[in-house]
TrEMBL record:
GO molecular-function terms, A-Z: glutaminase activity; imidazoleglycerol-phosphate synthase activity; lyase activity
Glutamine amidotransferase domain span: 7-236
Catalytic activity line of the entry: L-glutamine + H2O = L-glutamate + NH4(+); 5-[(5-phospho-1-deoxy-D-ribulos-1-ylimino)methylamino]-1-(5-phospho-beta-D-ribosyl)imidazole-4-carboxamide + L-glutamine = D-erythro-1-(imidazol-4-yl)glycerol 3-phosphate + 5-amino-1-(5-phospho-beta-D-ribosyl)imidazole-4-carboxamide + L-glutamate + H(+)
Active site per UniProt: C87, H220, E222, D268, D431
NCBIfam families: hisF, IMP_synth_hisH
Pathway(s) annotated for this protein in UniProt: Amino-acid biosynthesis; L-histidine biosynthesis; L-histidine from 5-phospho-alpha-D-ribose 1-diphosphate: step 5/9
E.C. number(s) listed in UniProt: 3.5.1.2
Protein's name in the database: Imidazole glycerol phosphate synthase hisHF
One GO process term, biological-process aspect: L-histidine biosynthetic process
Record's keyword annotation contains Hydrolase: yes
Family named by the database record: Belongs to the HisA/HisF family.
Keywords associated with the record: Amino-acid biosynthesis, Glutamine amidotransferase, Histidine biosynthesis, Hydrolase, Lyase, Multifunctional enzyme
Alphabetized InterPro entries for the sequence: Aldolase_TIM (IPR013785), Class_I_gatase-like (IPR029062), GATASE (IPR017926), His_biosynth (IPR006062), HisF (IPR004651), IGPS_HisA/HisF (IPR050064), IGPS_HisHF (IPR014640), Imidazole-glycPsynth_HisH (IPR010139)
Length: 584
């Protein structure tokens, strides 16, 4: 017989992946609790309760309050039954967060410590002339686990959490341990709390906490591959302390940031001429086969989206991105083509999934009603997406932002989605193309000197700015990539997916000058995209001192020239970089 796991649902993001992970483990069903009444009805039967949270601390705490869930949760904790918090679900056990400084907003206060924001001017980065991105997004290691103040041996685990594996984190605020908190940690340790510690740059913070049957992780176990599934299983099976075998092929060398280099596989998806949803790939965004003598060529078909995504997950992709590249075609809300793809993919893929294409206010042709972008995004989150990527709409939003003297209106898709689901859930996909200039004074946009003479303009122009496009390169705008990214960061975006139409499908390597230029103007993480042709190209981009630690490839994986694992092994063995390699 299957056991039931109860999950608190306060409408804060992707619960589908958690449900999928629990079901994937085999012996469990999931039952959601939305309010106090449902809690009370189920209370005597609840044996395992999970309290997930994504996004904004204040939003989560006020939702708990609004739904009268604070007292039932306190009562449940007191009863000593098993409870697991995830991400903001961990943060809720603390007293307060700098993210939501309203004086009357308090968390559950089990730990009388406050959460603070990571410092993008981390002194270790500043002295190395590197840039630290905030949010902290990516795969990090656990540095130390302690029980009652005493360090674990390396092979010991806390609910399966161990120092050999990598876990997926995505957050800007954390229980960062300054001198003052060291005292508190010592006190709580003496009272019997267990802690797992990690660091982002020079900032040490709590990655997991546990006391009796209470357990919480700052990272997302449901998005941390096999290592994360093991943590959930240990919690559900009640195995608090265990052992891990130490023969995993992890590198022990850690980056200054602590994060591994992230390798992302991207699938451009559209319907082909036969009406099937396929993965395709363009050269400079042209996805049609070019056969001589044919006027209308067919869309390149490289495989089925879910099948390919599973293949890349098994090869070790740290994230998978799906882009609906023909999103400008209207379809009824319930039939948005990527919903089904996500639902299927999220059943077996336990790393972060991003979906892009058509994230904007839309008119549902079936009902003729306007659906705000935040609702469209919510549908994707509820189908298994962790982040949405906004392309064309981001350009329109940035244009209005500048036209409005850099004032926010609170209504754009970027602002609405980030305030509900957190900045980390909003990626901006940028499609820039080189606009040649004789001199930087020919534009008001941030320009750059072209380094490679082979890339000079047709008339020998040695300067350019990166002019943004929308609708998959079809529409050109009087706006530069830097200006677009700066505006989107100010409005609440959490990450930039930086494509380059000039490099897309070229296999000649990433557009380094564009990447440096943009990264030097924003603090949020930038994902390098377009042009990857071999593992060395990933090394090149990760070695830049502007602090890029995520890079995306498409064509090289689709054509099976390299697997994701080939790239990661190369980075580890030839370039000495820290990557996540998982035991299969
Ligand atoms: O504008 O919000 O509806 O989003 C549409 C999304 O679809 C945007 O993210 C846009 O970049 C993408 N898109 C639109 N048309 C195309 C096309 O190719 N015709 N694809 C397109 C963009 C670029 C990358 C590609 C890398 C790596 N694809 O995602 O995967 O360049 O390729 P490579 O490694 O083979 O060089 P909206």
């Amino acid at each position: 017989m299957k056991h039931t796991v109860h999950v608190i649902d306060v409408e804060s993001g992707n619960l589908q992946s958690l449900e999928n992970a629990i079901k994937y483990l085999g012996d469990y069903n999931v039952c959601y609790i939305h309010n106090a009444k449902e809690f009370e009805e189920a209370e005597s039967n609840i044996q395992k309760l999970i309290f997930p949270g994504v996004g904004n601390y204040g939003h989560l705490i006020s939702q708990l309050d609004k739904k009268n869930l604070v007292n039932p949760i306190r009562r449940y904790i007191k009863s000593g039954k098993a409870l697991m918090g995830i991400c903001v679900g961990l943060q809720a056990f603390f007293e307060a967060s700098e993210e939501s400084p309203e004086p009357d907003l308090h968390g559950l206060g089990l730990l009388q410590m406050n959460l603070t924001k990571f410092n993008s001017n981390d002194p270790d980065f500043v002295s190395s002339k590197l840039r630290k991105s905030v949010p902290h997004i990516g795969w990090n290691s656990i540095e130390r686990i302690s029980t009652k103040g005493k360090d674990f041996d390396r092979e010991q685990t806390l609910f399966g959490i161990n120092e050999e594996s990598k876990y997926y984190f995505v957050h800007s605020y954390a229980a960062i341990i300054s001198e003052k908190e060291k005292e508190a940690i010592k006190r709580y340790s003496e009272e019997g709390w267990d802690f797992a510690f990690t660091r982002y740059g020079s900032e040490h913070f709590l990655a997991a906490i546990s006391y009796g049957n209470l357990f919480a992780t700052q990272f997302h176990p449901e998005k941390s591959g096999l290592a994360g599934l093991a943590v959930i299983k240990n919690f559900l099976d009640g195995h608090k302390y265990g052992q891990v075998s130490l023969n995993q092929p992890q590198s022990r060398k850690r980056d200054l940031s602590g994060l591994t280099k992230r390798v992302i596989a991207c699938l451009d998806v559209r319907t082909n001429d036969e009406g099937d949803l396929v993965v395709t790939k363009g050269d400079q965004y042209n996805v049609r086969e070019s056969k001589e003598g044919e006027s209308s060529n067919s869309v390149r078909n490289l495989g089925k989206p879910v099948q390919l995504a599973n293949r890349y997950y098994e090869q070790g992709a740290d994230e998978i991105t799906f882009l609906n590249i023909t999103s400008f075609r209207n379809s009824p809300l319930k039939d948005l083509p990527m919903l089904q793809v996500l639902r299927e993919a999220a059943k077996t893929i336990f790393v972060p999934l991003t979906v892009g294409g058509g994230i904007k206010d839309m008119v549902d042709p079936e009902t003729n009603s306007i659906v705000p972008a935040v609702k469209v995004a919510e549908l994707y989150f509820r189908s298994g997406a962790d982040k949405v990527s906004i392309g064309s709409d981001a350009v329109t939003i940035a244009e209005s932002y500048y036209a409005n003297s850099c004032k926010k209106n609170g209504k754009s898709s970027i602002e609405m989605i980030s305030s509900t689901f957190g900045n980390q859930a909003v990626v901006i996909s940028v499609d820039p193309k080189r606009k040649y200039l004789n001199s930087p004074s020919d534009t008001t946009m941030k320009s750059t000197k072209i380094q490679d003479p082979k890339s000079f303009g047709p008339n020998g122009e040695q300067y350019c700015y990166y002019q943004v496009t929308s609708q998959g390169g079809r529409k050109i705008h009087d706006l530069g990539a830097v200006e677009l990214c700066v505006a989107c960061e100010a409005l609440g975006a959490g990450e930039i997916l930086l494509n380059s139409i000039d490099h897309d499908g070229s296999n000649k390597g990433f557009n380094i000058e564009l990447l440096i230029q943009v990264k030097n103007h924003v603090s949020i993480p930038v994902i390098a995209s377009s042009g990857a042709g071999n593992p060395k190209h990933f090394q090149e981009v990760f070695e830049l001192d502007c602090g890029i630690d995520a890079a995306l490839g498409a064509g090289l994986f689709h054509r099976e020239e390299y697997t994701v694992n080939d790239v990661k092994l190369y980075l580890q063995q030839s370039a000495g970089m820290d990557v996540r390699l998982e035991k299969s």
